[in-house]
Amino acid sequence: MNTIIEFKNVKKEYQSGDHILKAMDDVNFAVDEGEFVVILGPSGAGKSTLLNLLGGLDTVTSGQIIVNGNHIESFDDDELTQYRARNVGFIFQFYNLIPNLTALENVELMGDIVDVDINGLDVLESVGLREHANQFPAQLSGGEQQRVSIARAVAKQPTMLLCDEPTGALDSNTGVLILNLLQSMSNDNNTTVVIVTHNAILAEAADKVIRIKNGQIERIVINENPKKVADLEW
């Protein structure tokens, strides 16, 4: 497999008065193209900081972040904007849909951001929502809104999907549905999926599990035979 993500001696520090918080403390790991990766750790461990650095939403204090051979830690603001637009699909716990646009319009909006042909109906069908294309977010359930947000993220055909607690606001049945969709995108479309979560059960379905504690990598586990999300005991 081709390595798509590399963190090399990455540090991220925040200073408050005389105190320095080491949100990332000399972090090293690699992710291969198409891997389904789960990042686990307690609150405050640095999981979301890692995701923000990888997504180009924050910058390192020192170290290197290499994505597809590009050193994104050296990108300027314009280059980071282009990187986020072309390479990254973000899926957050809260859906961030535009309320006065239909589900279809929310998805096809990605066509204004990146130069790709988007068939919004086909993308919505891939997440089981073609029949809801003309409904507004307020007319959809929480799970349906989250599926629209996933459809919007994948519509621009990103290199990777970065997911921050994507099922945290959902009931268990809908959460399994969403995670099954994400795993399918990894397996079927060779999309690199990175999920930050508190739910350790999901580790059994991951190709790679990265455990973080106090801003450092505590352990990396490779699953030779990851389970299907639908087969996990929630």
Topology (SSEs and partners):
Elements: E1 3-16, E2 19-32, E3 36-40, H1 47-54, E4 62-67, E5 70-71, H2 77-87, E6 88-92, H3 103-108, H4 120-126, H5 142-155, E7 160-164, H6 172-189, E8 192-197, E9 208-213, E10 216-222
Parallel strand pairs: 3-8, 3-9, 6-7, 7-8
Antiparallel strand pairs: 1-2, 1-4, 4-5, 9-10
Keywords, separated by commas or semicolons:
single chain, 234 residues, alpha/beta, Rossmann fold, 6-stranded mixed beta sheet, 4-stranded antiparallel beta sheet, 10 strands, 27% helix
CATH level 4 superfamily: P-loop containing nucleotide triphosphate hydrolases
Biggest β-sheet description: 6 strands, mixed
Domains, number = 1
Examine the coordinates and then state which fold CATH places here, giving the name of the CATH topology. Rossmann fold
The assembly state of the depicted protein chains is: single chain
Cα radius of gyration in angstroms? 18 Å
The number of distinct helices, counting runs of at least 4 residues, comes to: 6
Q: What is the strand content?
A: 25-35%
Quick check: average pLDDT?
91
CATH-level-2 architecture: 3-Layer(aba) Sandwich
* Helix vs. strand class: alpha/beta
Strand order of the largest sheet: 6-7-8-3-9-10
Low-pLDDT residue spans: none
Based on CA inertia axes, which overall geometry fits?
Answer: globular
CATH class equals Alpha Beta
* H and E order: EEEHEEHEHHHEHEEE
The portion of residues assigned to helices is: 25-40%
How many E-type strands? 10
